C-alpha cells in the first residue's frame, strides 16, 4: 500500500538527511568540532572556514549524495503505486518530493545531534540532480556566479534557490513539469531562507563573512572531538 511506502520513505529519508557529514569530516580531517568554531553551523561553508577546502568539498559531495540517494530510493520504492485523494494524484513524483523535504528536515534538525544541523542547501540541490537536472544546474550556476561576484555564500545560496523557483514556474507552464516539483521548490526556499535568517541580518548590516575568510583555531579554543 502506498501510504505504508510513504511512511517508510519519510523515515528513511529523514535518517539519511540527518547524518551530519560536516561534523564527521571536520573531526576526521581537521580534528575540529565545528559546532565550537566559526558560525557553529554544521555545513560545508563552516567546514571551509574552519578546516579547509578539501574537507569542505568532501562534505558537499556527501551532502549532495545523501539527498540523491534518498530521492532515488523514494522513486524506486514507490514504483507504479498511485493513490488519488480529492483529485490529487500521489505517485512516485510525490514520493520524491516527500523524500527531498524529509532529507532537508533531517539535515537541518538532526536527531543524531540533538536536533541541530545545517541550512539544507546542498541537500536541496542534491534532490534536483535526481528530479530535474536542469533545475540543479541552473540554480547551481546562480550560486557559483553570485558567490564569486559578491563573495557571500549565503547570498548565492538564497538567490540560487529563488532562481530554481523561477525556472520551475517556466517549466511547469511550458513543458509539463509536475506542479508538485514547483510546490517543493517553494517549500524548500522557505526553509532555506528561514535557516539563513541570521545571515540575512548580517548581510543587511554588512557584517557577514565573505568567502575566503578563514576562522583561526587557537589553542585557547576548544577542539575536543569526543
Question: How does this structure look, described?
Answer:
With 226 residues, the protein is an all-alpha fold. The protein has one domain (2-205). 68% of the residues lie in helices and 3% in strands. The chain is built from 10 helices and 2 strands. It has helices at residues 2-17, 21-30, 44-50, 53-78, 92-108, 121-131, 133-150, 153-174, 179-195, 197-205; strands at 83-85, 88-90. It has a two-stranded antiparallel ribbon with strand order 1-2. Strand 1 and strand 2 form a beta hairpin. The longest helix is centred in the N-terminal third of the chain and has 26 residues, at 53-78. It is globular, with a radius of gyration of 18 Å. Mean pLDDT is 90; it is low at 219-226.
Summary?
The protein is an all-alpha fold. The chain has helices spanning 2-17, 21-30, 44-50, 53-78, 92-108, 121-131, 133-150, 153-174, 179-195, 197-205, and strands at 83-85, 88-90.
Amino acid at each position: 500500500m502506498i501510504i505504508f511506502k510513504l511512511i517508510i520513505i519519510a523515515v528513511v529519508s529523514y535518517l539519511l538527511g540527518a547524518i551530519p557529514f560536516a561534523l564527521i569530516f571536520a573531526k576526521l580531517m581537521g580534528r575540529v568540532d565545528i559546532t565550537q568554531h566559526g558560525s557553529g553551523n554544521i555545513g560545508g561553508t563552516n567546514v571551509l572556514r574552519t578546516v579547509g577546502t578539501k574537507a569542505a568539498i568532501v562534505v558537499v559531495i556527501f551532502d549532495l549524495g545523501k539527498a540523491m540517494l534518498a530521492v532515488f530510493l523514494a522513486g524506486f520504492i514507490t514504483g507504479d503505486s498511485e493513490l488519488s485523494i480529492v483529485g490529487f494524484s500521489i505517485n512516485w513524483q510525490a514520493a520524491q518530493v516527500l523524500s527531498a523535504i524529509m532529507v532537508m528536515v533531517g539535515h537541518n534538525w538532526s536527531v543524531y545531534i540533538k536536533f541541530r544541523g545545517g541550512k539544507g542547501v546542498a541537500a536541496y540541490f542534491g534532490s534536483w540532480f535526481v528530479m530535474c537536472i536542469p533545475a540543479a544546474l541552473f540554480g547551481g550556476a546562480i550560486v557559483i556566479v553570485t558567490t564569486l561576484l559578491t563573495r557571500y555564500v549565503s547570498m548565492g545560496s538564497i538567490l540560487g534557490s529563488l532562481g530554481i523557483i523561477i525556472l520551475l514556474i517556466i517549466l511547469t507552464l511550458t513543458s509539463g513539469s509536475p506542479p508538485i516539483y514547483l510546490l517543493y521548490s517553494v517549500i524548500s526556499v522557505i526553509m532555506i531562507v528561514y535557516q539563513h535568517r541570521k545571515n540575512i541580518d548580517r548581510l543587511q548590516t554588512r557584517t557577514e563573512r565573505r568567502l575566503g575568510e578563514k576562522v583561526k583555531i587557537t589553542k585557547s579554543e576548544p577542539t575536543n572531538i569526543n
